[in-house]
Specification:
Distance between the termini of chain B: 86 Å
Chains: A alpha/beta, B alpha/beta, C mainly alpha
GO molecular function (chain A): ATP binding
Oligomer: heterotrimer
Shape of chain B: elongated
CATH architecture of the largest domain in chain A: 3-Layer(aba) Sandwich
Mean pLDDT of chain B: 80
Mean pLDDT of chain A: 85
Number of strands of chain A: 14
Low-confidence stretches of chain A: none
Helix content of chain A: 25-40%
Strand content of chain B: 5-15%
Order of helices and strands of chain A: EEEHEEHEHHHEHEHEEHEHEEHEH
Domain ABC transporter (chain A): 4-232
Largest interface: B-C, 50 and 54 residues
Family (chain A): Belongs to the ABC transporter superfamily.
Organism (chain A): Peribacillus deserti
CATH topology of the largest domain in chain B: Rossmann fold
Keywords (chain A): ATP-binding, Nucleotide-binding, Transport
Amino acid sequence: MITLSVKNLKKKIGKKEIIKGIDIELYEGEVFGFLGPNGAGKTTTIRMLTGLIRPTSGSISICGYDLQKDFTNAMMHLGCIVENPELYPFLSGYDNLVHFARMIPGFQSKRLAEVIELVGLSERIHDKVKTYSLGMRQRLGIAQALLGNPKVLILDEPTNGLDPAGIREMRQFIRDLAKNEGLSVLVSSHLLSEIQLLCDRVAIISKGAVIQTDTVHALLSSQEKMVWRVEPLQQAKQILESATEVVELEDCLITDFDANKAGLWSRELVNSGIQIIEMNRRLPALEDLFLELTGGDRIE
Amino acid sequence: MCEVFILKKPLSIVITALSAVLLCVWLGGFLYAVQTNLNVQADESKNTSQDTGKKSQAVNNEKDLKVVAVGDSLTRGMGDETGKGYIGYLTDEMKAKSKKPVIVQNLGISGQKSDSLLAQVKTYSVTRQLKEADYILITIGGNDLFQGGQTLVDFQPAAVKSIQQKYLHNLEAILSHVRSSNSGAVIFLVGLYNPFIELENGKDTSQVVREWNYKSAEAAAKQIKTVYVPTFDLFELKVNDYLYTDRFHPNSKGYRLIAERVAALLTW
Amino acid sequence: MNKLIQNEMLKLLARKRLIVVGIILSILVVLFTYAQYQTVQTQLKKLGTTDWRTTLQQQIIDTQNRLSNSRIPDDFKKELEVRVKQQQYYLDNDINPAEPGAPSFTKEFMENSIDLLLPLMIMVIASDLVSSEFSMGSIKLLLTRPVKRWKILFSKYVTLLLAISLIIAMMGMISYLISGVVFGFKGWTAPEFIGFQITEAGFDASGASIIPQWQFILMDFGVVWFAAVVVGTLSFMVSVLIRSTAAGMGIILALLIAGAILSNMVSSWTSAKYFFMLNMRLTDYLNGSPPPIEGMTLSFSLAVLTVWWLLALFISFGVFTKKDIY
């Protein structure tokens, strides 16, 4: 079932078109990654999805409600954290949640306790937010996003600033939400390993447009590489270059992976008296993938 | 169910409610201020238009009433919160009844006695004003007789006798001078009342005041168109209702009584 | 909507700005009370040891004597009449007119704070109400709720009105209680003179009448409230337009101070009367002080302030509901 549907979303500021037509569909129970370098339009898109920025054209529909035409109903099914969860530091965590709960029509007060339990903040909930650690704030942020039993959860950089243990915990938490509660979670991150580990599907965005949308697995497998450690390097490179594209990286050579031809290439190298120390099939990091897809758009 | 968690901050609720009440109070005050002040402004413009109306009337009707009042603090109106005195009330009444402009010269001097009044009326400027008057009002004698209450406190018939003699002499001189300077005007001589009527020796003092007034009336009778106006009876009952806090001068109510009595005698 | 207003009040109270305002006011009132007390003492010294009651009685009689003089103009007579009534009231109620009672002090304090002090206090609250959400970043959480934006802003505006009402009441209470300790709490029913005006022709008291002081104070507070609402709304607008609370405060502060300076020197530049700052002193119309520019009336000032108010409100809501939040 489609929970979030974005069609041909565009945003112009002045004459400059920042977002040039984005289409996304989110399904129930999946974690969807939203990947792009800073300045690619990731944040602007997320702000449009959460109603903070008015799109110039295109439509956003959340659980069938159009965000522009039926803001209240659409937002009833959406929970989000945009950038950091900037809760009121001078209020307690509890008061913060009460504050946001009051803004939900027909809110049931037992949900408040549920959510606090879910994010594991029961002990510190009555302390002022300014005494919270970053991780606790992040969890409180998720708690406020979940208050209204949303169908769609949008998390902008959810692991930003967390320590490694916190990151792992958050990752597990998000996966559980999608799996157990059937939420669609849209996660944006510039930590690419994060997307790799967290998401089912990913959209890659560059310069205001989605370049590719696919499952993480499919994207990666289409980009498999062979890594060659050979001796002498230059001679081997010449031989391989006659057959395929070769990139020289430190003391290795990298070529595309091709199951049919790998044996052929290695035989040729051996015949030419080159010593093969190691021959490896490797999934690329998303960094490489990104470079590949965007043709050099930098990423952190 | 929904309200349970919301009621956790009673202080905030109380303050909110209090603020809401205050908001209504200040809004009320504001509306009151606006209403009052805009009304006043409207009234003012009405008043000014009435005033101009009156002025144009005055131009058309050259015949206006001239009143000259001489005498002591009663003429001055001492004790009246509005400062009008019986002259003021009388003037109001005359304006209302005659529909003519009334010009009043109040020459009263607080604490004046008969001898100094005689000197005053004989001065050139006062004589000139008396000449033009349609009505001449006199209050005199109170200070001669009472001397600030002293005379009647240590009451000595012989002393009173000699004071009265002097006073009558002066009064006759005053009246004849006024009469001679203006033969047409009506002269009203306003009599004394007894401010001490409710004191211990009220009976004795009343006796003296009655005698005093009787002689004054006789002196007035000697001149034509000269009317003695009694006030004794006005203050005879409930004197303190009509007296100012000094228990000597009339208050506004008292002055109004005197003015009404004089007004009743006016003819056009 | 009720819940939204409660939210805003919760935040307002939690930030303790009202308490800060209360403390500032208390300090100032103590200062002013002391100053007033010193003035009274100097006056008493000058007068020597004479009993003020005798002096007052004498003044009443003098005024009454002047009143009965038919040559004095009618409007001046009105003024004298009121003076007599006031003096008589002081005498009857055993109030030394040289030492104002707490109600008089409060009234004067309000009248003098209407164009600068009070707006400053209001500004502290108003200019922070929206921009602080921006600077804290919490606006992103606030606007991603299933509540329309205009409702959120409206709840903030209502909260502002409530806060203004509260601050004015606080101001009144603080000045009444503190000055009352020194000057006594009496004088609520002292007669006050309303409805006279200073015009080109001079002093016009033809429409004057007398009301008890508490009614006058109520009116004073009413117009003070209105002026405060207008300034509050303007600060509110700036708060919507400018993310930085400090910059917003700076703008309003500059305007208010410019107004205070202008009102002292612009009587020849008549167009200045359309500035809201010059129309702030509404209490002047009540107590008959001359307006900064000739020809200004209560209705004029109210009209000017209302236009500014509506404009600010319109811009605030227009911008806030359309604004892209980055």
